[in-house]
Amino acid sequence: MVDLTQLETEERKLLKTTKLSRINKVGSCYVIKATAVDFVVPPHNPWRELEIMKKLCFGERIQCAQIIELLDHRRVHDELELLFPFYSLTLEDFMLSQYNFQGSRSKKQFNPYLLGTKSTESTPEFYYNGFDVNIYAADMFKQLCSGLQFIHSNGIIHRDLKPQNVMLTSISKPLQLKIIDFGISYDTTTEDKDEPPNEKVTDVSTCFYKAPELLFSVANYDYAVDIWALLVIISQWFQQGSSIVNYAPAFIDDGSAELENGSDIRLILTLFEKVGIPSVDLWPQVRDFGSASAFTGLFGSEGDGKYIKLLSAEEQHTRIIQNFPRLESLTDPKVKTMFLKCISGMMVLQSTERWTVSQLLDEINCVLQC
């Protein structure tokens, strides 16, 4: 196995920078994640990330194929370096590559830097989502669930599951997925003075992948935040398309396609538009542990009577198909039923009632192995 000392003479090519880390490609096969260790800002913690990666990759359990492999690590001055295999394509890249341009309109625009001239700009009317749900959806869903089951069984909450943090090992079929980036993950089995179990940081996850309980400051959250993020990823596969280039919409929206950082308020409003507003008694974790006054002040305590879990099974399925319209494109009725059941189990605001990843895998395996 290669180690970092063997790569010291290799040229490093910067691929990406974040607030606290740099990702460099080394040669053709590896990447090095370098993170400052003298400036730790919760929920970021490079030492915790290292311990989590060691636990997932070298622990007592057999390593999971859906988790990125940690190849080596070392401290260099004020940075911690982690060595990983290089994969060039993220799940987000793949999803966006499946969008097909559907028509355009041309319009003349004045360009102030080219005096006396006008530039022609072609503005897309619609990008159709060509992600083949019959080929990819069930298999990718199972792989993501398998990865999450391994993560959760080791006591880890990922806290930033999104297509950008899932790599594809190749573009040949079958596609193999790898979950990456445990930089803000949380280990429930160890004592963390910066984040006690009932006082976890709620400013985790990214844009519209953020779970509802996080939006209302429930700090004693658990693995269910990852299940919600998975639900949002699935919803992106089943949307019809987008009027915005290089954007894969979900069933909820925080405005991040137009705003630099998105808006939690917009996310909350679209969330309740899609799933309905529960009474405060149907969401006890917000009532007892979250921002109950903010919730009731904005939305009242009685709900709107449209909360999806108050509906019959048939009405729930109708609502789900409205929010995930390309479910109708699934040709195998058993797979369609599986997705409807799983989505129904995941689309629950009270996280203690949200399906676990083991429940999801039981439903998936019941269909795919029959």
Automatic annotation (TrEMBL):
Residues 1-368 form the Protein kinase domain. The keyword ATP-binding applies. SUPFAM superfamilies: Protein kinase-like (PK-like). GO terms for cellular component: cytoplasm. GO terms for biological process: G2/M transition of mitotic cell cycle; meiotic cell cycle; negative regulation of transcription initiation by RNA polymerase II. Keywords: ATP-binding, Kinase, Nucleotide-binding, Serine/threonine-protein kinase, Transferase. GO terms for molecular function: ATP binding; cyclin-dependent protein kinase activity; protein serine/threonine kinase activity. SMART domains: S_TKc (SM00220). Signal peptide: none annotated. The keyword ATP-binding applies. It holds the Pfam family Pkinase. It comes from the Eukaryota. This is Protein kinase domain-containing protein. It comes from Huiozyma naganishii (strain ATCC MYA-139 / BCRC 22969 / CBS 8797 / KCTC 17520 / NBRC 10181 / NCYC 3082 / Yp74L-3) (Yeast). The lineage of its organism: Eukaryota, Fungi, Dikarya, Ascomycota, Saccharomycotina.
